[in-house]
Amino acid sequence: MLLEVGGLHISYGDIEAVCGFDFHIGEGELVSVIGVNGAGKSSILQAVMGILPCRKGSIVYKGKDITSLPSHERARMGIRLVPERSRIFPRLTVYENLMVGLYGLKGRLNVGERVDWLYGLFPVLAERREQPGRTLSGGEQQQLAIARALISGPDLLLVDEVSMGLMPKLADEVFRLLRQLNTEQGLTMLLVEQNAVASLRISTRAYVLETGTCALHGDAAELMGNSHVLDVYLGREAK
Ligand SMILES: Nc1ncnc2c1ncn2[C@@H]1O[C@H](COP(=O)(O)OP(=O)(O)OP(=O)(O)O)[C@@H](O)[C@H]1O
Ligand SMILES: [Mg+2]
To answer: Which residues contact 49 (CB under 8 A, 6 or more apart)?
Structure first.
């Protein structure tokens, strides 16, 4: 098992955002967590990355308890987050933004090769390599955030609402790319999405998060046929 999270509790002051969520991800899996606005999806990813403390529970990664490890140590162990609303550095160029993803890891990688690979995956970033991040469109910034997370060759990629603000065609392309990274490179991923149809389509398994805890989990294909999931998350689109 690559990641095992047990009894996860996350609170903001008196507000309990997540209360007792259990989940696991095997190596090579693409797992999604779906849930309505405010269900606690981003909080879970931030807790796995070590940006948010968990009040109770345990996070075990590659067999090691990382519950109290700081975020940069988790990054060094191969965990990377593509945050909600991309959060790139607006004044740094595209290239410099990519370099931020290598913080503390440069010695171990052939940087030129990694950058060329990413420019091949995201041609728009190659075209704009010298431009400041703030001059990119929302969709381009989203691609830069994914590329920045990929540059270090992570073992576990946490992806928060990657389709937000993207036009449907570009969102489809990004989902296709994530699927491709999973199947061709064996990259393990935890995907959090409001676009439940798209994320279930590319996932192997999924968890449905309701009132801070797991309401349902199972094979993504099975969940797509579940009447509760159909009614609440998929709507007519998938019927
Ligand atoms: N900084 C914060 N301070 C107080 N409450 C917060 C904070 N961040 C999140 N919350 C609350 O925690 C709960 C879970 O938030 P979270 O952002 O994890 O949800 P989400 O599932 O990612 O939602 P969305 O789909 O809108 O992104 C919500 O009730 C939210 O209001
Ligand atoms: Mg969120």
So the answer is: 71, 74, 75, 79, 81, 158
Q: Which of 119, 153, 187 is the last residue of a domain?
A: 153
pTM: 0.93
pLDDT score of 35 more than 80: yes
Which of 8, 9, 11, 12 most suits a substitution to test ligand 1, by most atoms within 8 Å of the C-beta?
Answer: 12
- Cβ–ligand 1 contact at 14 (below 6 Å): no
- Is the same domain home to 73 and 159? yes
Are residues 173 and 227 located together in one domain of the fold?
yes
For the segment 92-134, what is each residue's pLDDT rounded down to a tens digit?
999 999 999 987 675 667 889 999 999 999 999 999 999 999 9
Amino acid residing at 201: R
Query: How do residues 146-159 score in pLDDT, each as one tens digit?
Result: 999 999 999 999 99
What region does 149 belong to: left with phi over 0, alpha with psi -120 to 50, or beta?
alpha
Cα 42 to middle of ligand 1, angstroms: 7
Q: Domain count for the chain, please give it.
A: 2
Range of the domain at 215: 3-78+155-238
CB 77 within 8 A of CB 48: no
Cβ of 39 less than 6 Å from ligand 1: yes
State which ligand 1 atom lies nearest to the alpha carbon of 161: 27
Q: Which helix (H) or strand (E) holds 214?
A: strand 213-219
Residue 171: give its domain's CATH number: 3.40.50.300
Identify the residue whose C-alpha is closest to ligand 1 atom 29.
38
Same domain, 41 and 11: yes
